[in-house]
Write a structure and sequence with these properties.
- By secondary structure, this protein is of the alpha/beta class.
- It has a single domain (18-375), classed as TIM Barrel (Alpha-Beta Barrel), CATH 3.20.20.
- Helix content is 27%, strand content 23%.
- The protein contains eleven helices and 14 strands.
- It has helices at 9-12, 101-114, 133-144, 160-164, 168-174, 189-196, 207-219, 238-250, 272-280, 284-291, 339-346, and strands spanning 22-23, 47-51, 54-66, 120-124, 150-157, 179-183, 224-229, 255-259, 309-316, 320-327, 330-337, 351-356, 361-363, 372-375.
- Strands 1, 2, 3, 4, 5, 6, 7, 8, 9, 10, 11, 12, 13 and 14 form a 14-stranded mixed beta sheet that branches.
- A hairpin with a 4-residue loop joins strand 12 (351-356) and strand 13.
- The protein is globular, with a radius of gyration of 20 Å.
- The relative contact order is 0.18.
- The structure holds iron/sulfur cluster.
- Iron/sulfur cluster binds at residues 73, 75-77, 80, 82, 127-128, 158, 183.
């Protein structure tokens, strides 16, 4: 069940299929998708899969995340979703780091063998996957033993380990990662630090090191996408967005995503992070309206967009929605999402996501006591 808001009947006919990119030329009214958003997503039919002796319903194309927490994170982002405790959670995975690597990787190998032949992508996230190079290198070595398992491989990172260990960037390239999504709230290092709050020993907090890291990735032909979380202490206005795009372009990056902090609804316990998110949220919808005002629909593409912007298309997933534009040769994604829609989807009886927690338990959710499949170690 993915039902956060009501979608008009006419719009229901235009649902999104998984991985569907609805090209601008086929869209009469792109702004219409802004209401209802993830509800317009039409999922692939679920399939049965036996895991640890029990049958589960799985959504083909889901992403598998080995929850990366070999160490506590070396940044302390004010909005960190890993610090958010859902009301049905009894613990946070983030608080339990991976200790016994031999046991952990043997268990992960067992899980991957059971999933062999199932269509899925690798989404390497959680805390910071590069914070402990030995853990990441072992993970890449294990990936090497499962060359066909993942249709797509993406690393989400703050870049810290890539900046300090020269082995990691070439190793990622060898492991055929399709993309590295690199978080940076602002190009100005002081403003970025106010939000991301790296440990002071982390060189990546410096702008020059961040830029060197991007260049090193690009030199290995690794696709880099910069991720900017919108908030009113960093980037929140259309002018700020355009400055960020110009900085990215000057650095040679041609893909940027501006992501609104996910909608939290009433499903998280109040803490420092939820309060910060409430106080500093910058709605992506407002930016969309500056780039392509709803009142101007139907859109004959670029002529009604803000000057310098051209709409390329829109996409949706089970809990997110994107508008994809081009500006000065840079692909710019404006993205909104809802953790409430995510929670509703993962409770639907079909596993939409697989998370391998540090306890070696495989779950269909980020919450380690929810949608539990079982322990592999
Ligand atoms: S880098 Fe990611 S895991 Fe680390 S504090 Fe920031 S949001 Fe949280």
């Amino acid at each position: 069940m993915i039902a956060a808001t009501t979608v008009p009947a006419a719009q229901r006919a235009e649902r999104f299929r998984p991985n569907q990119f609805r090209h601008a030329t086929t869209i009469a009214t792109p702004a219409a998708y802004r209401d209802g958003r993830w509800e317009t997503f039409e999922p692939k039919p679920a399939v049965d899969r036996t895991l640890l002796g029990r049958v589960f319903r799985l959504r083909p194309g889901l992403t598998f995340t080995p929850y990366a927490n070999p160490t506590p994170c070396n940044a302390h982002c004010s909005f960190c979703s890993e610090e958010l405790l859902r009301i049905d959670a009894d613990r946070l995975t983030a608080k339990r780091t991976i200790t016994d690597y031999d046991q952990y990787f043997a268990a992960l190998d067992r899980a991957w063998r059971e999933l062999d032949g199932f269509t899925m992508g690798l989404s390497l996230s959680g805390l910071e996957a590069t914070s402990e190079p030995e853990w990441l290198l072992r993970l890449l070595a294990l990936l090497d033993e499962h060359p066909q398992l993942f249709a797509e491989r993406v690393l989400y990172t703050n870049g810290s380990g890539l900046a300090t260990d020269a082995r990691l960037v070439p190793a990622l390239a060898r492991a055929r990662f399709d993309r590295v999504e690199l978080s940076r709230a602002h190009f100005d290092e002081r403003r970025n630090h106010r939000i991301m709050r790296f440990d002071l020993a982390q060189p990546i907090r410096r702008r020059a090191v961040f830029e060197q890291t991007v260049r090193a990735l690009r030199a290995q032909a690794t696709d880099v996408r910069l991720v900017c979380i919108l908030n009113d202490e960093g980037v929140s206005t259309i002018e700020g967005v355009e400055e960020y795009i110009a900085e990215a372009r000057a650095l040679g990056v041609d893909r940027v995503v501006f992501r609104e902090l996910s909608v939290l609804g009433e499903i998280y316990l109040e803490n420092r992070e939820t309060k910060w998110i409430d106080r500093h949220r910058a709605p992506v919808r407002a930016l969309m309206e500056r780039v392509l005002p709803s009142a101007d629909a139907p859109c004959e593409v670029e002529n009604v967009c803000r000057e310098g912007w051209a709409l390329e298309g829109v996409t949706a997933g089970y809990y997110y929605y994107n508008e994809v534009y081009r500006r000065d040769g840079v692909e710019v994604v404006l993205e909104g999402s809802s953790y409430v829609a995510h929670r509703d989807a993962v409770e639907s009886g079909v596993l939409q996501k697989l998370v391998f927690h540090s306890t070696m338990e495989l779950c269909g959710d980020w919450v380690p006591n929810a949608q539990v499949i079982g322990r592999y170690g």
